Amino acid sequence: MISLDDVRFRYEDMEMRFDALFPKGSFTAVIGPSGGGKSTLLNLIAGFERPLSGRVLIGDKDVTALPPDRRPVSMIFQDNNVFAHLSLWQNVALGISPALKLAPEQPKRVELALSEVGLAALAHRKPGEVSGGERQRVAVARALVRDRPVLLLDEPFAALGPAQRRDMLDLVTAMQKAKGLTIIMVTHQPEDAEQAASHTAYLEKGRIVAMKPTAELFASALPGLRDYLGK
Ligand code: ADP
Ligand code: MG
Fold first, then answer.
1. How high is the mean pLDDT of the chain?
2. Average confidence (pLDDT) over 68-85
3. Per-residue pLDDT for 106 more than 90?
């Protein structure tokens, strides 16, 4: 479970307030206009930002004061997930050790993760020598080796075509089922939410306006949501 308990945050002109509960093992999509605070919400959970007040709980642990590396969280972004000068293998190994100092049994975990995302044969290539979809698979493999119970995705597959996006979502959903992950994914694509997320939150102006079963949310008559979807 992830819980935001009256979390307040502010960037100069933008005040945000989040109260939300994401059950353990759930897959929630977050949609809403640009600048609404979707990335900030994930950053508050991951620890890249700290609330002005309120608490962030993961499981029953208060993580509000913990730095990102001490939270049970992995995060995947739209880009900047991979280092160009490192091989795909090394990029995945970074998930275990940022200094690439692996214990003797750990390379096996890297290889297993690479094969689970279908990259075993490309392990020694550099990110510049593979496709955009394959680079995002590296990010997923890195999350796999980290083996943290919470996975946050911030528009992870926005640069990919529809077929590749569907494949990546299938991969993430399979990971979620196998490991019981709690997932929150920001996306602008309603079909992504419909494919993968049991619940969807609509976020606007620093507030979660509604969080409901995905089909119900998309059918609901919130004026901001209708405008956002262009309906
Ligand atoms: P979203 O991901 O929904 O597009 P963000 O969480 O990135 O929204 O941003 C929410 C608001 O906070 C926006 O008004 C944005 O301009 C502002 N903001 C985001 N990051 C920063 C920052 N590092 N410094 C100042 N303002 C920021
Ligand atoms: Mg964002």
1. 94
2. 90
3. yes
Whole-structure pTM value: 0.94
Q: What pLDDT is recorded for position 77?
A: 86
CA distances from 36 to 4, 10, 137 (A): 17, 12, 28
Tell which one of 7, 8, 9, 11 to mutate to probe ligand 1, the residue whose CB is within 8 A of the most ligand atoms: 11
> pLDDT-derived band of residue 176, with 50, 70 and 90 as boundaries?
very high
Residue whose CA lies nearest to ligand 1 atom number 14: 35
Concatenating the DSSP letter of every residue in 168-225 gives HHHHHHHHHHHHT-EEEEE-S-HHHHHHH-SEEEEEETTEEEEEEEHHHHHHS--HHH
DSSP 162: H
Phi/psi for 178 (5° steps) reads -65, -35
The neighbourhood of ligand 2, an ion, using CB within 5 A, equals 38-39
CA of 207 to the centre of ligand 1 (A): 13
Residue length of the chain:
231
Whether the Cβ atoms of residue 38 and residue 205 lie closer than 8 Å to each other: no
Nearest CA, atom 13, ligand 1? 35
Q: How many CA atoms lie within 13 A of 6 on its CB side?
A: 2
C-alpha of residue 10 to centroid of ligand 1, in Å: 9
